[in-house]
Specification:
The chain is built from no helices and ten strands. It is mostly beta strands. A hairpin with a 2-residue loop joins strand 1 and strand 2. The two termini are 28 Å apart.
Length: 156
């Protein structure tokens, strides 16, 4: 994955292995990794641009899938930059260690932080609002992933 070139994202334009600031081995007094593991960061900014669907049959689009045994945990912020008077709402569905649930509805012009533990997938559906106004063909926004995971430490 690469950092998006999205105007509102102010994430660093470095690749993960060029990141100068390392994640701490301990977070708020807790050692999140076992002895032979180290805590690593996954920071990603990703734009959202997808069609709006009918609220009775929302169509979800995938924005994150993990096919590793890493436990991605931390904060995900979903922002809906649509017009508050005529935009679509976003339904955010998370699959993590807890299960699969639609955890948030993000209205146009709003954003929401979501804490995840063992993130496997994140999907978003854009749905038309209750107000009968012209609705744009697409909804827009961004997702900022600020996650940590444990990886095996390489010993030379």
């Amino acid at each position: 994955m690469h950092h998006c070139v999205y105007e509102k994202c102010d994430m660093p334009k470095k690749k993960w292995y060029e990141e100068k600031e390392a994640c701490p081995d301990r977070v708020k007094g807790y050692n999140l990794c076992k002895k032979r593991n180290e805590l690593r960061c996954f920071k990603q900014c990703q734009p959202i641009s997808q069609p709006c669907s009918d609220a009775t049959a929302p169509e979800y689009f995938n924005y994150f899938t993990s096919r590793t045994n890493f436990e991605f945990s931390g904060l995900v912020v979903v922002s809906n930059t649509g017009n508050p008077t005529s935009g679509c709402s976003m339904l955010v569905r998370v699959t993590d260690r807890v299960g699969t649930n639609t955890v948030a509805e993000v209205n146009p012009g709003a954003s929401i932080p979501i804490f995840v533990e063992g993130l496997i997938a994140l999907e978003i559906a854009c749905v038309e609002g209750d107000v009968v106004l012209p609705v744009p063909a697409t909804c827009s926004g961004e997702i900022i992933f600020d996650l940590e995971y444990c990886a095996t430490r390489t010993c030379l």
